Amino acid sequence: MKMRSESKIRMDLNSKVLVIAILGMIVMFSTSLLPIQLVLTDLQPANTDYIYMVDDWIITENTVLTNDVVFAQGKGIIISASDIVLDGAGHSISAEVYGYGTGIKIYAQENVVVKNLEIFNFEYGIRIRESDNCLILNNNIHHNKKYNIEISRGACFNVFKNNIIAYADDEGIHISGRYWQTYGASEGNVLMNNYFYENKVEHIYLLVAVGTVIIHNTLQGGGTGVYVKCSNDTIIRDNIFIETGIELRADVVYGEYYNVERTKIIGNRFKGGGIKLNSRVTQVIDTVIIDNELIDANDGIRLIGGKGSIIMHNKISGGNYGIRLETQTKYAPRFNSTDNKIVNNEIVECTDSGIILMEGDQDNNEIINNKVLNNGKYGIYVSNYANGNRIVSNTARGNGIYDLYDWSLGIENTWIANKYDTANW
Question: What predicted TM-score, i.e. pTM, was given to this entire model?
Answer without folding.
Answer: 0.90
